[in-house]
Write a structure and sequence with these properties.
With 174 residues, the protein is of the alpha/beta class. It has helices spanning 21-35, 46-59, 63-71, 85-90, 121-131, 142-148, and strands at 8-9, 12-16, 60-62, 78-81, 97-98, 110-113, 136-140, 153-155, 158-160. It has a domain at 60-160: Rhodanese-like domain (Oxidized Rhodanese, domain 1, 3-Layer(aba) Sandwich). The strands form three sheets. The chain has a five-stranded parallel β-sheet. It is globular.
């Protein structure tokens, strides 16, 4: 029986066992430039990490914060649904406007949303609106997480509560 360390590496005859450690070590060392030191216990610059997360908070919001603002009656922003007309018809966040129908003003902040984490429609719309001079934030989680939180969805027939997708966790733990 052939021992594992004697087997050819990557199907290449002549590279066995200990000899394979050199290419592996080289790959591992080249990763350091990409992972910024995380593989060795953490980032090398906590200030850059802090800046990164502060920037995310400056340009993103979540469904709970949006719901709280909308419930106040004076949210201070326009909520923009970036999904298709068909998706809009299936249900939307109460108080939202469709991107194609929105009459936006530069002096009123905008919050964009789309279907959920697997969709970047809100990100694309936010980037375009920011390029046009709007103050804009993206609502992370989209309508998927809005529904998961138990918030109502508006249809042409009125408001309703929907059951969350059974394939997603009911409690993310945050």
């Amino acid at each position: 029986m052939e021992r594992l360390q004697d087997a050819p590496v990557g199907g290449v005859e002549g590279i066995h066992g200990h000899e394979a450690r050199v290419p592996w070590k080289g790959w591992r060392d080249s990763r350091k430039a990409v992972d910024h030191g995380f593989s060795e216990g953490g980032p090398r610059n906590s200030v850059s990490g802090m800046n990164f997360f502060e920037m995310r908070l400056a340009f993103q919001t979540d469904v709970s914060d949006v719901q709280k603002a909308l419930s106040s009656g004076e949210p201070g922003f326009v909520l923009v649904d970036t999904r298709s007309a068909q998706a809009w018809g299936q249900g939307r966040i109460p108080g939202a406007v469709r991107l194609e129908d929105a009459d936006l003003r530069l002096d009123v902040p905008v919050v964009t949303y789309c279907w959920g984490p697997g969709c970047n429609g809100a990100t694309k719309a936010a980037a375009k609106l920011a390029a046009e001079g709007f103050q804009v934030r993206e609502m992370i989680g989209g309508i998927e997480y809005w529904i998961r939180e138990g918030f109502p969805v508006r249809t042409d027939a009125g408001e309703e509560l929907r059951k969350p997708d059974p394939l997603t966790a009911l409690d993310c733990g945050c």
